[in-house]
Amino acid sequence: MTATTAERTAVAGSDFAELNRRINALGLMRRRPAYYALRLAAVGLLVVAGWTAFFLIGSSWWTLAVAVLMAVAFAQLALVAHDLAHRQVFRTKRPSEIAGMVAGNLGIGMSYGWWMDKHTRHHNNPNHDDLDPDVAPEVLIWATESALGRRGLKGFVTRHQAGLFFPLLTLLGIDLKVSSVKALRNGVVKRRRLEATLLAVHFVVYFSALFLVLSPLQAVAFILVHQALFGVYLGLTFAPNHKGMPHPTGNEDYLRKQVVTSRNVRGGRMIDVALGGLNYQIEHHLFPGMPSPSLRRAKPVVEAYCNEIGVPYAQAGLIESYRQALRHLHEVGEPLRASRAR
User: Fold this and answer.
1) Which of residues 314 and 248 earns the better pLDDT score?
2) pTM for the full predicted model
3) What is the distance in angstroms between the CA of the first residue and the CA of the last residue of the chain?
4) 30-39 contacts: CB < 8 A, separation 24 or more?
5) Is 290:283 a contact under the CB 8 Å cutoff?
6) Helices in the chain by DSSP H: which ranges?
7) Of 139 and 309, which is predicted with more confidence?
8) Residue 264: in which H helix or E strand, if any?
9) CB neighbours of 262 closer than 8 A, spacing ≥ 6?
10) Which residues, 6+ apart, have CB-to-CB distance to 181 below 8 Å?
């Protein structure tokens, strides 16, 4: 006898309910205040150490080494803002927002409210061609249908986007700032005045420090190195997670929609630190409020359960995950390359 749509929906819903029961039985959703106290302190010290080294070295080309350190510090601060947005650190909204704006707007020059809205839409519909802003057809194209008909500079980028991927990541840090300013200007951020003030303070302090301490040429070089490496680090953190994975139709149940579109990255504790726990992307998407240090313990539970109910569970090494994403970019651009070769 063929199951009805209602019956299939009920079974699919019970799949996640059972997984949720197993996760809660292990206490993996409990807050980890000691972990986050240490992590926030470590990232804060890294930022302070970077700026201290900058002022101690002064007007010297050696400050470009500090720019590299600050790129890492800014990326780690962004990963903290990510956890704050998911309320992994604080249970309630207000302290999460305040800390998020301090880390995002004041710390790295990115609108926390704008990014949180964008990221929430991504989590609700990962890899959906129309509903996920992270795969929207902009500079890079992730769906073949979106690539068709692109001409001029856009067509050139799409044809060669696999090779241009890493160079384009150097612009990601700047793009976050430009998009943040646009969002504030267009009034799409709830706490517009507060966010704009914090963002303005960041820009004034950042550029004042650079151009008061360094020569103009050194300051420009610092900005280029710092923002480029910051963008590359962020891109390398997020790129392995969904790129090259299936694009859903929107009819999938919650568990399958989150698991099938995500890819985990294998690795040890160093990978956990470098990627901020986002290497456990499947577990993070299923349980976005789960504290980062609990994701490692959740992985074997989720993987075993997915195997039990026949849901594909994708994982790869760090380098292989990038290779898969680049291969997908190359394949998406193939129709444009083929039409140009005719």
Assistant:
1) 314
2) 0.90
3) 52
4) 30/291, 30/294, 31/88, 31/89, 31/91, 31/291, 32/291, 32/293, 32/294, 35/291, 35/292, 35/293, 36/83, 36/88, 36/89, 36/291, 39/80
5) yes
6) 5-25, 33-57, 63-85, 93-101, 112-124, 144-147, 152-159, 161-169, 172-185, 192-213, 216-242, 254-260, 269-274, 281-286, 292-309, 318-332, 334-341
7) 309
8) strand 264-265
9) 126, 241, 242, 245, 281, 282, 285, 314
10) 111, 199
Beta bridge partners of 316: 265
Q: How far apart are CA 314 and CA 320, in angstroms?
A: 12
Q: Which two tokens stand for residue 219?
A: 């300051």
| Structure tokens given for 128 | 């959906």
Three-class secondary structure of residue 190 per DSSP = coil
pLDDT digit string, tens, across residues 10-22: 445 689 999 999 9
Instruction: Name beta bridge partners: 264.
Output: 315
Per-residue CA distances from 12 to 17, 96, 127, 255, 265 (Å)? 9, 32, 20, 8, 26
Burial class (CB in 10 A: 0-12, 13-18, 19+), 308: exposed
pLDDT digits (tens, 9 = 90+) for 229-242: 999 999 999 888 98
Q: Are 199 and 184 in contact (CB under 8 A)?
A: yes
What whole-number distance in Å separates Cα of residue 256 and Cα of residue 336? 32
Q: How far apart are CA 328 and CA 326, in angstroms?
A: 5
pLDDT tens-place string over residues 53-97: 999 999 999 999 999 999 999 999 999 999 999 999 998 889 999
Q: Which two tokens stand for residue 198?
A: 């914090």
